[in-house]
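Thread title: Can someone regenerate the structure for this chain?

I was given the following input by a collaborator and told the matching structure tokens would be attached. They weren't. Posting the sequence so someone can regenerate them.
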Amino acid sequence: MRESIDDVRKRIEKIDYEILRMMANRTAAAVEMGKMKASESIPLRAPAVEERVVERYISQAREFGMSASSASQIARLLIRESIEQQGHIPRPSLTKRMLIIGGTGKMGRWLSDLFEARGHRIRVHDIVDSDKFPMERDLERGVRDAEVVIIATPISVTREMLEKVVELRPEALVFDIASIKSPFQDILRKGAADGLSICSLHPMFGPETYSIIDRNVVVCNCGSTDAVDRARELFDGANLMEMDVEEHDPIMAYVLGLGHATNIAFFESLRASGRSFEELSQAASTTFQRQVETARDVASENASLYYEIQKMNPYNAEALAFLQRALEDVRSAAERADRGAFERMMREGREYFGGSQ
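Best answer:
Regenerated them for you:
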């Protein structure tokens, strides 16, 4: 008897259940491995091993007529889930007493949750009481008792807080997470030169991020290799990029300053047009829809933080000047009917991103 569509759907439903059951079994096995890693202080990530897993999936997928792209995506999803679960296994040998200054702010709370899940002992110093973590009112006592001091305050007050912490001559690892470093990089350099274990970090994501796995974290070396090594260990599982602190802001002028400004200019242009978003959406192209998704996210972000990123990075002016020039070049090429200039920009853009797809 021929199966009906409903029969086939029920069969697929059973297969889906088996897939999920096997995924759960795989994750359970990964957790067991994670406990072994934790007991032996082995890093969470093993890139060479992960690539072999992906290659195995691709190779075996061919036997079943599946695409290499789908197999790779499935493999990386499973790897990510495994590492995420392993990252929540406490590592007794690495457990630290942490003081998070600004720990009731969005990123401060996110870091508090992350490190508590990894087995660290958290205390918070802030002007607002934490509803979850114990408060430390006395900054001097908190810094003295901590093994790690994290400054998660707004950029505008990070310098002041760094000065207070550095004056206390802590033995703890000290780092900030500010998006801009120029306003206080002299303090970071001086602290390291004076023998403090101090560096500067920049998580390249916001507090809505579910997991640190595969997320970018910039580690700025301020002169203390000890601090860099200790900080990298705390953020095991992330994609860590190390640079000198002076390199940070020139790069962020493009990664953050230009990226934010481009999206703000985009939605400001739409708003100034006088046409409703609903009207434009009905005729939206794929490119427009993708741009809107990013611009909508930017519009809903912390306006004060985005203002500080624009105002306090001295390298933003250069990036925005290039943006203004590029917009003028696009407009000019169209108005002058200069097909060659327009096609050259498109060609050079493809080359910049690695060539034709």
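The two ends are 47 Å apart (CA to CA).
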